[in-house]
From TrEMBL:
<protein>
    <recommendedName>
        <fullName>DUF2231 domain-containing protein</fullName>
    </recommendedName>
</protein>
<feature type="compositionally biased region" description="Basic and acidic residues">
    <location>
        <begin position="8"/>
        <end position="23"/>
    </location>
</feature>
<keyword id="KW-0812">Transmembrane</keyword>
<keyword id="KW-1133">Transmembrane helix</keyword>
<feature type="transmembrane region" description="Helical">
    <location>
        <begin position="136"/>
        <end position="155"/>
    </location>
</feature>
<feature type="domain" description="DUF2231">
    <location>
        <begin position="69"/>
        <end position="190"/>
    </location>
</feature>
<feature type="region of interest" description="Disordered">
    <location>
        <begin position="185"/>
        <end position="224"/>
    </location>
</feature>
<keyword id="KW-0472">Membrane</keyword>
<dbReference type="Pfam" id="PF09990">
    <property type="entry name" value="DUF2231"/>
</dbReference>
<feature type="transmembrane region" description="Helical">
    <location>
        <begin position="105"/>
        <end position="124"/>
    </location>
</feature>
<dbReference type="InterPro" id="IPR019251">
    <property type="entry name" value="DUF2231_TM"/>
</dbReference>
<feature type="region of interest" description="Disordered">
    <location>
        <begin position="1"/>
        <end position="25"/>
    </location>
</feature>
Length: 224
């Protein structure tokens, strides 16, 4: 029987040891991807997004980044994050004269977040179950961050600048946490599947970002 194979037990022990030595954030995110707690949300949203993409195949190709040959979403995220980070730097170091410029950057980041979220939603719809679970948390953090950024912009316009700056800094923290989950989906889970944004790989073996590390690759160095 396979269960009696000592090599299987050895592999499982080494995988468990590797997990124990992984960073806490990584272990927590792995727990999230394996938990069915978010499945009801996934099962409610996923069919709706798939149907919307099926009705607009041309738009779906664009959102997946097909004309580029790789996923569009990671490229798109640089714009709102860069704008919001620049606004935060001006808020913290620019002085009173930098206020209008920070506000403008903040507003532009809010506008850029809308198309960026569409590309992420399209990729989420074609990814595997583990990615969809992490993606729900990723989207929730981004949504909360976007609400805070929008609230910050309104507060600034109404003259409550200190409170507006505090709201945007809190939003930056949420978006940073969301960015960690986004990186996990991309680098650890291999999302989105390459075939949706360009030709699949022609290599004889899958790339490292397309599959979980095999047991033979687990060792002291891979656990760091």
């Amino acid at each position: 029987m396979l269960d009696d194979d000592p090599t299987v037990d050895d592999r499982e022990n080494r995988m468990s040891h590797a997990d124990d030595r992984s960073p806490r954030l990584l272990r927590a995110t792995r727990t999230l991807e394996e938990s069915p707690a978010l499945d009801p949300v996934v099962e409610r949203l996923h069919p709706w997004v798939v149907r919307a993409l099926d009705r607009q195949p041309g738009l779906a190709r664009l959102l997946h980044g097909r004309p580029l040959g790789h996923a569009l979403h990671p490229l798109m995220t640089d714009t709102p994050i860069g704008l919001w980070t620049s606004a935060a730097v001006l808020d913290l170091t620019g002085g009173p004269s930098a206020g209008p410029h920070a506000d403008r950057l903040l507003g532009l980041g809010i506008l850029a977040a809308l198309p960026t979220s569409l590309t992420g939603l399209a990729d989420w719809a074609v990814s595997g179950r583990r990615t969809r679970r992490v993606g729900v948390a990723h989207a929730a953090l981004n949504s909360a961050g976007l609400v805070l950024y929008a609230g910050s912009w309104v507060l600034r316009r109404r003259g409550a600048r200190p409170l507006g700056v505090a709201a945007s800094l809190a939003a930056t923290g949420l978006v940073s946490a969301s960015g960690y989950l986004g990186g996990h989906m991309s680098s650890r889970l291999g999302a989105p599947p390459r075939g949706h944004s360009g030709p699949p790989t022609t290599r004889p073996t899958p790339d490292a970002d397309e599959v979980d590390a095999t047991a033979d690759q687990v060792g002291p160095s891979s656990a760091l």
